[in-house]
Here is the input.
Amino acid sequence: MVRFLKRSYVYLVFAFLYMPIAVLMVYSFNDSRSRGVWGGFTLRWYVELFQDRTIMSSLYSTLFIGVTSAIIATIIGTLAAIGIHNSRGIQKKLIMNVTYLPVLNPEIVTAISLMILFVFARVRLGYLTLLLAHITFNIPYVILSVLPKLRQLNKHLYEAALDLGCTQPQALWKVIIPEIMPGIITGLLLAFTLSIDDFVISFFTTGSGINTLSITIYSMARRGINPKINALSTIMFTFVLLLLIIVNVRQAREEKKGRNGKHGSKKQIDSFDARFGGA
Amino acid sequence: MKRFSLFPYVIWMTLFIVVPMFLVLYYAFTIPTETGATWSLENFGRFFEPIYLRVLGRSLRLAVISTVICLILGYPAAMVMAGNAFTRKNVILLLFVVPMWMNFLLRTYAWLTILERNGVINVLLANLSLPRLNILYTEAAVVLGMVYNFLPFMVLPIYSVLSKIDKGVVEAAGDLGANAFRVFTKVVFPLSLPGVVSGVTMVFMPALTTFVISRLLGGGQFTLIGNLIEQQFLVVGDWGFGSAISVVMIVFILLSMAIMSFFEGEEKDVALW
Here is the structure.
């Protein structure tokens, strides 16, 4: 009985969390502009969505910025993680603290500080500034994804590679990088999702005419309800869900290999921690 | 090779994290004059004008209310999830994380559909021939939006701490004669404090600085700190004042970090995935 009550409570919380998303999805198929009324099933909003120039161009910007910033952040972040892993003392502490800064700062503070920088340096706000801003807030998450993998690495692997005749770049490229690959891929996916999800920082660092999906949604939502946004939500939620499933299946497979015996649930918490700065 | 791998990051970090922070400080502590700029605390002084104190008061009040609601709703949920009510904890936890990956704006926007005049709730009420509720564009809607968006931030850290508590300690307390209530107040809750503190900061800070939730669900009638900063930079163009408010926010963050590290003790190893 107590167990039943406990479970019901958690299901109630789930209902609270999922209800709005479910409502959005259901109404994306509703053939009536007024939300309360069910006017029958339609795919009209999806068709209109794909015909909407503003939305499509902001979708393109979002994907472009997301992919580019994730790749660049992954390269810089992975190298940085290797460097941090091998540094000691004050230097390491200092770098780690600065790394946590954008993770812990309120987004709006990071956003305005970057905006001030770009305006101060007379960089025209637009694609370039968006990209630079996204890379900046993505790098810490890549570092936090790669560092644990480096810690699990056998210290002598690198030395062994050198002893067996690798040059230093070869040892890094052929031995270290493949070993920490799962962390790098996690970082890449995390960076991509964060970039797509971001609103606040994009809002302050973009210029006129260049909008990400989030900014377009914001300006549409400010004007009230638009069924096209519902259609868009459904697509985005499905996409994110697929991405999450892929990541989790990968993770489960890796666990099966028995590389690390850590508890799965703990890992999810930690990825959450790293994302939202609760670490 | 390994030594050089830090270079790109250090340069990037300096340019895009450290320099911008100093620029914010510079704008916060100077005021423009005919010849350039001069050091001044005027921007901080303006913060104490009644109109801005009211904004601060409202932000603090709404953030505190949301945090308390999140704690009251979230702690039991975390406790159940950490206990043995569910056999597949991983799935339950994942179900908790999934909504957070949905675009933040869309999650907030979803409530517009539910709360508005002809929205889901009001249609349901009308069908039951009950009077309409005008929730949208009130403070209640803003609080609801905050609770909805930030509840997982409260649950997950608490869950993380609770699931690490040694079961033996809890059993020992029971064996030594404590009833369920006393076990909770004297053992479980004190042990979960680090999670509570980190949950509270993680809900409180974004609730304090949000400008999206208050704009969309409050309809722009409820200026919060976040909206104030936004206006200074995008509407008024008063960077000095905007920066000063931001500096105050950074100080808040540093304070809460200090409190958190006090509760957490030694540094934990951050592991991802």
In short: Residues 59-228 of chain A form a domain with the MetI-like fold fold (CATH 1.10.3720.10). Residues 66 and 196 of chain A are 6 Å apart (CA to CA). Chain A touches chain B through 106 residues (CB under 8 Å). DSSP finds twelve helices and no strands in chain A.
